[in-house]
């Protein structure tokens, strides 16, 4: 799903790996 990790985090949010599980933090851009 994440083809462009440099662009998509700005659009949909940030994918952060925390404690072995992925958490999405949405940024207000």
From TrEMBL:
<protein>
    <submittedName>
        <fullName>Uncharacterized protein</fullName>
    </submittedName>
</protein>
């Amino acid at each position: 799903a994440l083809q462009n990790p440099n662009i998509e985090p700005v659009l949909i949010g940030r994918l952060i790996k925390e404690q072995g599980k992925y958490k999405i933090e949405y940024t207000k851009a």
